[in-house]
Design brief:
The structure is a single chain. The chain is mostly beta strands. The protein has one helix and 35 strands. A four-stranded antiparallel β-sheet has the order 4-5-6-7, with no helix packed on it. It has a four-stranded antiparallel β-sheet with strand order 8-9-10-11, with no helix packed on it. The radius of gyration is 21 Å and the shape is flat.
Amino acid sequence: MNGHRAVAFAVIFVLLGTGCGRQTSGTSPLFPVPQGSTWGFIDNRGKIVIAPRFEAALPFSEGLAAVKREGRWGYIDRNGAEVIPIRYQKAQSFRNGVAIVDTGLPDHPVGLINTSGSWVTQPLFRSLSGADGPDGLLLGQKEPAEGSGFYDRSGNLVLGPYFLAFSFAQGRARVKTSGQANSEDWLIDASGKFLPTKPLVLDGMRYSEGLIAVRQDRKLGYMDLEGNVVIEPRYDQGGEFAEGLAAVQLNGHWTFIDKLGAVAAEFPAGVAFAEPLSDGLSLVSADRDQPGRKFGYVDRKGQWVIKPIWDDAQPFQEGLAYVGNWKDGKAAYIDHQGRSIWEGRSTSP
């Protein structure tokens, strides 16, 4: 769906979508907002809590938020105090107590820091992706010719390298062993053992709620962690399972199915694409036959909760969703009833 979004809002939505994680349990959520060319944070009632003064900002995760000032990134706490110096070229949100940062140094700029700003994994990598759990393996690349491999937190290669790989999820990772046109994708477990997938083609990037999308004869179904096909391939499109359901499409019509493959709900007519449930709602694009596709939200019963009136939108997180219109540069946070709790405009490039 991202290919249908406007360039004018690309920066805003990439920022909000990067490393977006749940905030510290027991605290009220804070949300990044643009005000002209600067960013600050609001609470879930739309009140400014941290005044806009940053060039960019990511959502809070695990009590910290990455912010950008004078072209560099660092981290602030919920009071707006700088707790990890603003010195990195790039930064991601914290997950499982660590965050990936790019120092901007030549050759091997990327490493892993903890919430105190100390190195957990020294900057030994050209690229790095987060682990599945607190002690999981990191997906990284040190040299272009090496491909991607899985590393421990000391920076030692444990599995691989592979021509292409995706991060572990639920103890499984999708890898590709070569760049040959006829080379196959595989699933591996945490020991590096190759798991059988034939005669299926992997369609999903990773497991979600114990299932991954696969294809057979160009049709999509789902396979469990043991390699058993539990939902026969019969759909044209489909996404990850979330909150017990997956959105799938057959002959141009979208439905929710459960983990047995039974239809749980049908989407309204005109839905062109549906994202996984988040906060109980699915972000959908509608009017696929019209030049100006719009975005709205459908509940798990397949009913419109927020009609498709937005030019761009993000999934709901922590009770709010970030939406925008291109024509007037309007940005807003809306609640589950579609009411704007904050509105602003962005002049970000």
